[in-house]
Amino acid sequence: MNTEAEFEQIQNELRDKIVLTDTFDPAELRTIAGVDLAYWQRGGEEYAVCCIVVTDRRTHQIVEKQHFSGRIEVPYMPGFLAFRELPLVLKTAELLETQPDLYIFDGNGYLHPRHMGIATHAAFYLNKPTVGIAKTYFRIDKKTDYIEPGQTPGSCTDIVVNGEVCGRALRTHEGVKPVFVSVGSGISLDTACRLAIELTDKESRVPIPTRLADLETHIEREKLNT
User: Fold this and answer.
1) Structural domain boundaries of the chain?
2) Other Cβ atoms closer than 10 A to 152
3) pTM value surpassing 0.85
4) pLDDT over 90 at 142, yes or no
5) Which residues 6+ apart lie within 8 Å of 39 measured at CB?
6) pLDDT of 61
């Protein structure tokens, strides 16, 4: 079993490889995958299922969906979520016949104490640009809060920690709570926010790929946890 110190060392080594700019032409994005996980307990052990839903960027239709489930080997430790979830994410990604141009995670990326949320960590193993879009705010230094963006869809405010922009609070619909966008790697924050708005429809405040992945995790968990 790895220790927190070992996990932190891995994160610190990967942190130097983070790319906060676009490594692709945003106009050429064709397929975008949403990633999410759901957990359950059985026999005193913890299990999870990861679902990846690949969507067409233009039509928003589902191109492919895959899932993989298994026992969680790493206990919960704040700041080290990727070590719990990444094994299942990678197993699920291996099942895909369609190679997405971009992955969006229901979670954080650069908005993390060491800038190594699940979206960032996964980027180095998926070898694709990644974005983290979370439904709840992760206060990474216990004191920095976010400023509420305006009510107009597309309004946003930077989340600044120690003088550095680590993410944005983004309003996707008027009258709903904001989502929290942070870069994984290989994409700029501006592009990530534009995609978040483009991929969000009237059904939810979160982008279609991660909303569909979330729905799939509930379906698969129900099947598996019976």
Assistant:
1) 19-224
2) 9
3) yes
4) no
5) 46, 47, 48, 72, 221
6) 96
pLDDT value at residue 143: 79
Q: Which tokens is 122 given? A: 């996964």
Measured at the CA of 189, the angle between CA 145 and CA 58, to 5 degrees, comes to 125
In this structure, whether the domain defined by 19-224 belongs to CATH 3.30.2170.10 is answered with yes
CB-based contact 25:194 (threshold 8 Å): no
Residue appearing with tokens 């790319």 = 19
